[in-house]
From TrEMBL:
Stored PANTHER family: INNER MEMBRANE ABC TRANSPORTER PERMEASE PROTEIN YCJP, MALTOSE TRANSPORT SYSTEM PERMEASE-RELATED
Name of the featured protein: Carbohydrate ABC transporter permease
Organism taxonomic ancestry: Bacteria, Pseudomonadati, Pseudomonadota, Alphaproteobacteria, Acetobacterales
Alphabetized UniProt keyword annotations: Cell membrane, Membrane, Transmembrane, Transmembrane helix, Transport
Stated family: Belongs to the binding-protein-dependent transport system permease family.
Record-annotated ABC transmembrane type-1 domain positions: 91-283
Membrane topology: Multi-pass membrane protein
Location(s) in or outside the cell: Cell membrane
Transmembrane segments: 26-44, 95-117, 124-147, 159-183, 204-225, 231-255, 267-289
InterPro entries, sorted: BP-dep_ABC_trans_perm, MetI-like, MetI-like_sf
Length: 298
């Protein structure tokens, strides 16, 4: 008796193609629905902030009105922030601290990543892992010993303390990002440069930095974001309004006891969010390329 297995039913090619197209269409529809839900969910808070910033104090206090609609829009909150108080001083302090942190972080982390990725020495792999692990220590455990260090250096209530402290948050992760990027660069470039008589500094400056520019930009964006949005250290170390950065200055100057100037708070927060928004809008491609560069080598 024959025991041959029954062959599967024949499906025409046109029908298979139509089935695949339908599956892709439904997958695309589902993806767009999920994306729409995601956008609405995450855009509601900024939208509410914008609506509140365009209201007068009386309209904000009127609980009978719709919080999502502005009946009488006004730019008074923005005007008062920019012409009165210390908002511009806080903004200037944030710019100084952030730019200084980015420069210091890039100088240290670039040289450290190059040494750990290309100048192999005993314990370099362990040291690289240790550098990254320091980034995982939370700020809530560090700000107390940092407070003692800052006080002993006479930098309490001075933005210079932020310039010295913030790199402790940014350098470990920036170094880790660039280690992966430097490791993905072909070693033939090192060998060719050494044959031509180049020093390690010349190799770093003329070869690795131009080639690793996307990774360096990704590290710069990370350092910018961390230093611009830091809150715990400025709250602990900065007291006077003329030394505060935006994250602390908005809260300290616009909240008095149980009085919240919600219109100005929302306006100040929106303007403070513009620099990171512009940075990510123009450099997002470089940021993604830098974060994923270490996934492959060669």
């Amino acid at each position: 008796m024959s025991t041959t297995a029954a062959s599967p039913p024949f499906v025409p090619a046109q029908r298979r193609i139509g089935s695949i197209a339908a599956e892709r269409r439904w997958a695309m529809i589902g993806a767009y629905i999920a994306l729409a839900v995601f956008v609405v969910f995450f855009m509601l808070p900024p939208f509410h902030m914008l609506m509140t910033s365009l209201k007068s104090s009386g309209e904000i206090a009127d609980l009978s009105g719709n919080p999502w609609i502005v009946r009488h829009p006004t730019l008074q909150n923005y005007w008062e922030l920019l012409t009165q108080g210390n908002y511009l001083i806080h903004f200037r302090n944030s710019v100084i601290v952030t730019l200084s942190t980015v420069v210091i972080s890039m100088v240290i982390s670039t040289m450290a990543a190059f040494a750990l990725a290309r100048m192999k020495f005993w314990g370099s792999a362990t040291l690289a892992t240790g550098v990254f692990l320091t980034y995982l220590v939370p700020e809530t455990l560090l700000f107390i010993p940092m407070f003692q260090i800052v006080g002993s250096m006479g930098l309490y209530n001075n933005i210079l303390a932020m310039i010295l402290i913030f790199p402790t948050l940014t350098v470990p992760f920036c170094t880790w990002i660039m280690i992966g990027y430097f490791a993905s660069i072909p070693k033939e470039l090192d060998e060719a440069a050494l044959i031509d008589g180049a020093s390690h500094i010349q190799m770093l400056w003329k070869i690795f930095i131009p080639v690793a520019l996307p990774g360096i930009l990704a590290a710069m964006i990370f350092a910018f974001t961390v230093s611009w949005a830091a809150f715990i250290y400025p709250m602990a170390f900065l007291v006077s309004s003329d030394q505060m950065v935006l994250t602390v200055g908005i809260v300290s100057d616009l909240i008095r006891a149980d009085t919240f100037q919600w219109g100005k708070i929302m306006a100040g927060a929106l303007m403070a969010a513009l620099p990171p928004l512009l940075v990510y809008a123009f450099l997002m491609d470089y940021y993604i390329a830098g974060l994923t560069a270490g996934a492959t080598k060669g």
